[in-house]
Every structure is written in C-alpha cells, then in structure tokens.
Amino acid sequence: MKIVLLGYGKMGQQIEKFALKRGHEISLIVDKDNRESLTAADLADADIAIDFSEPAAALSNISLCFEADLPVVVGTTGWYDHLEEVKSICIEADQSLLYGSNFSIGVNIFFHVNKLLAKAINPYKQYDVQVEEIHHIHKLDAPSGTAITIAEGILGETDHKNKWINDVVGEGDELIAKPEELLIESLRIEEVPGTHTVLYSSEVDQIEFKHTAHNRAGFALGAVVAAEWLFGKKGFYQVTEMFDFNQA
Ligand SMILES: NC(=O)C1=CN([C@@H]2O[C@H](COP(=O)(O)OP(=O)(O)OC[C@H]3O[C@@H](n4cnc5c(N)ncnc54)[C@H](OP(=O)(O)O)[C@@H]3O)[C@@H](O)[C@H]2O)C=CC1
Ligand SMILES: O=C(O)C1=N[C@H](C(=O)O)C[C@H](O)C1
C-alpha cells in the first residue's frame, strides 16, 4: 500500500519502519514543513493514511482524508468528545476510518480481560475500583485514551460507578472521587511509554491488573496491521473489531 503518514514524531517514525518492513511504501510524510499547505490533492496518489499527530490536529486531518476519499487509521488520542460527530460524517459520506486508543495486541487483550474482571467483581461491593495511567512528560492529553477505554469497559460492567473523573497528580488540588465516580489517576514521569493499572481494593486485600509497554513497537506494528485490515473496507471501525475475542 502507499501510505501517508500524518504526524512524524515518536510514533510516525516507528510506523514508517514497520510499514517498510511489511512491504509498504510511504508516499507522503506530513510534518511541520508541509502541514500548513496540505490539500486533499496532495493525498490523491495514496491508498491509506495513518494519523499519529496531536489532539488539536486530528479532526482537520480526518476531514482532509474524507475530502480526498482516503481511508484513515487514527491513533491520535484526545479528540474523542467528537467521536459521534465524526462517525456520522464518515458514514454519511461513505468514507473509511478506524480509530483506537491503543493498537498493541497486549493492550487489546487487556481491554477484553478488563471487562471480564469487572463483571466478575461486580457482585462484591466491598471492592472499590480505580484506574492509574503513567506516561512520559511530553504527552499532551490526560487521561490517556487507553485509560478512557479501560474506564468505559469497567463502567459497562459495574453497578457501582456511573462516570469517570480524572486527576492529574501534581496539578492543582488532589481530587477525591465520590463513591459513584471512577477515578482515573494520571502521572507524568520522564520517558515512560505507557503503563496502565486497574486496582480493586477492599479492607482486606487488593487486586492489581497491569499492562506495561516496554517501548512503542507494539503500538506502531498494530497501526500498520490496522491499515492493512481497513484497506478495501468502507465504514467506521474501532481497533477492537479486528480481534476475534471481541466478536464472541
Ligand atoms: N493509539 C495508539 O496505539 C497510540 C496513540 N498515541 C497517540 O498518538 C499521538 C502522537 O503520539 P507521539 O508520536 O508520541 O507524539 P509526538 O509529539 O512525538 O508526535 C506528534 C507529531 O505530530 C506533529 N503534528 C502536529 N500537528 C500536526 C498536523 N496538523 N499534521 C501532522 N502532524 C502534526 C507534531 O509536529 P510538531 O512537534 O512540529 O508540532 C509531532 O511531530 C498522541 O495523541 C498519542 O496519544 C501514541 C502511542 C500509541
Ligand atoms: O501518548 C502516548 O505516548 C500514548 N498514547 C496512547 C494513549 O493515550 O492511550 C497510547 C499509549 O498509552 C501511549
């Protein structure tokens, strides 16, 4: 496939390596030198775009791909307040988009087991639940998209919580969650690629369910595999739809 990379930072550069290894061609890299002048015509020659840019850029990049009739895989997080709006536009305009807060296989298994765990613990009211995410200090959004997906997975299976709230440790006063609120605690530490933990605590014990990314390779390979999966399809998809264990 001829791939356009929208964003050429930490992720864009790793995605390029995996795309080339899997026999694809990078037909255009959009970075700070050409992004202001980019038009739909510049994308005409490509088969698919992969966007790992930044929260404020994702919506305009998606619009440009739709205008160019170009399927797009969106790994950028921090724009999910607009998800329903983008979904409607995508479907009405007969376009193709796949998005995911996390493309690694490990985290997608984690998403699946997280729901099973929440369902199993739901009858036992003595356990309170909290989500913790740790990322590098350059991250622009909080909570992480992955933490939001984890929290939504728990909210779908528990009777004890009705919404998530976010506390960024060290920013302002510490936020104390009400019993019905699911706290997502965000920590920013040096160059951590991404660590997510779900904690169930009772007076007598604690259950910890944790995923630690050692590097960004799993995210980057997953994004290329997602592009291969989306190519030739029409419609609006989430990365979870690529995995058989979610279809049961
Ligand atoms: N879904 C997943 O599996 C994963 C998602 N992510 C998400 O991907 C995004 C990018 O992460 P990461 O690569 O680490 O971040 P980086 O900051 O390293 O890279 C982002 C790049 O996007 C560029 N950029 C800014 N605006 C635009 C634009 N309008 N068009 C194209 N490029 C633009 C930035 O350029 P400049 O610096 O010049 O402004 C920067 O080079 C984040 O939202 C992150 O949360 C990250 C890892 C995994
Ligand atoms: O910004 C990052 O680095 C990451 N972002 C994604 C997120 O917000 O969940 C995925 C991964 O955790 C790394």
Q: Give average pLDDT, whole number.
A: 97
Question: Tell me, what's the shape?
Answer: elongated
CATH topology of the largest domain: Rossmann fold
Q: Tell me the structural class.
A: alpha/beta
Give the helix level as a range of percent. 25-40%
Q: Describe the biggest sheet?
A: 6 strands, parallel
Subunit structure: Homotetramer.
Family: Belongs to the DapB family.
Binding site for NAD(+): 31, 75-77, 100-103
Keywords: Amino-acid biosynthesis, Cytoplasm, Diaminopimelate biosynthesis, Lysine biosynthesis, NAD, NADP, Oxidoreductase
How does this structure look, described?
Helix 1 packs across helix 6 and helix 4 runs parallel beside helix 5. The model has no long low-confidence stretch (mean pLDDT 97). Helix 3 links the parallel strand 4 and strand 5. The chain is an alpha/beta fold. Strands 2-1-3-4-5-11 form a 6-stranded parallel sheet, with helices on both faces. The protein has a 5-stranded mixed sheet with strand order 7-8-6-9-10, covered by helices on one side. 31% of the residues lie in helices and 25% in strands. The chain is elongated and about 60 Å long. The longest helix has 17 residues. It folds into 2 domains: 132 residues, NAD(P)-binding Rossmann-like Domain (Rossmann fold, 3-Layer(aba) Sandwich); 108 residues, 2-Layer Sandwich (Dihydrodipicolinate Reductase, domain 2), CATH 3.30.360.10. Ligand LZUJQKHR binds next to helix 5. Pathway: Amino-acid biosynthesis; L-lysine biosynthesis via DAP pathway; (S)-tetrahydrodipicolinate from L-aspartate: step 4/4. Belongs to the DapB family. Homotetramer.
